[in-house]
Amino acid sequence: MNKLVGVMGCGWLGEPLAAEWVRQDIPVRGTTTRVSKAENLESQGIDPFVIRLGSGGFEGPWESFFEGLDTLVFNIPPGLRRNPECDYPARIRHLYSALERFKTPRLIYVSSTSVFGSHQGRVDESTTPQPDTESGKQLLEAESLVGSLKDCNVLTVRFGGLFGPGRHPAAYLAGRTGLQGGADPVNLIHLEDCMGILQEALGHPAWTGVVHGVYPDHPPKAIYYGRAAREMGLQPPVYKASGPPDSDAKCVDSKVLSDKGYQWRHPLG
To answer: d(Cα 29, Cα 45) in Å, to the nearest integer?
Structure first.
């Protein structure tokens, strides 16, 4: 495969993904918001573009980035923690217009399982999301926008909580006390499997719709995060005593991947 791929958002996931595709002799353009990061991308064989996407539109050489792309992987989250006033759907409308203008044939849109409410119970790709956070609501609206693109094969990939090199939820939770939901299931995925799923998606351009990227094991949060913290040499989080698991607690199944026989690369540990 040597069709031109664009990775918009070369961060924790996007950078190693783009670098892996370069190693497979796939030409890749990648975006970053920092000139210093652009030099690092270029050193890995990625064609770098310094581009920002805000609610007012693109800044930087975005037209050159989109020109001639066969596939775009869009990997820019809402970022509402840093900017609570962010209008993420406005940004996606600019993306929509660019994809239509340049007639990009393929979009792999990276979303999140936060489109489901925390008390939606067991869900899969056929479940109607009912988000209960602002981020989830904006992501769901964004999914709807890109899903309405004409003449573009769109695959939406909803990843669960991400973990891998330098990143683990247990590190954020370490030492905290009085936490709720210790019996609730975790919904996580390792970086290796994020990349594996996106690799599968790139290799099957006719694959459209929605796919969940969540490892199929769902141990209770208190047990899993406690063990993970101890393995990292951190103080385990302390959860309030609770009864049996909440039957309505969100538990995300990756049914599409299961049906396709995807081979998971990295267990929860």
So the answer is: 9
Q: What is the reported pLDDT for 23?
A: 97
Here the tokens at position 9 are 């958002």
Residue 133 CB contacts under 8 Å (≥ 6 apart), including other chains: 114
Calculate the alpha carbon distances from 176 to 72, 172, 233 in Å. 39, 9, 15
Count of C-beta atoms within a 10 Å radius of residue 113: 23
The answer to whether the predicted template modeling score (pTM) of the entire model surpasses 0.85 is yes
Spatial separation of the C-alpha atoms in residues 203 and 51, rounded to whole Å: 26
The pLDDT tens digits for 180-192 are 999 999 999 999 9
Q: Is the dihedral of CA 266, 196, 62, 145 positive or negative?
A: negative
Structure tokens at 138: 């904006």
Nearest to 100, CA basis, from 147, 29, 152: 152
* Contact (Cβ atoms closer than 8 angstroms) between residue 224 and residue 95: no
Residue whose C-alpha is closest to residue 18's, from 199, 162, 212 = 199
Taking 70 as the threshold, does the pLDDT of residue 265 lie above it? yes
Q: What is the mean pLDDT of the chain?
A: 95
Closest CA to 9 of 41, 55, 57: 41
pLDDT for residue 267: 93
Reading the block at residue 89, the tokens are 């759907």
Q: Is the pLDDT of residue 69 over 80?
A: yes
CA distance 194 to 209: 17
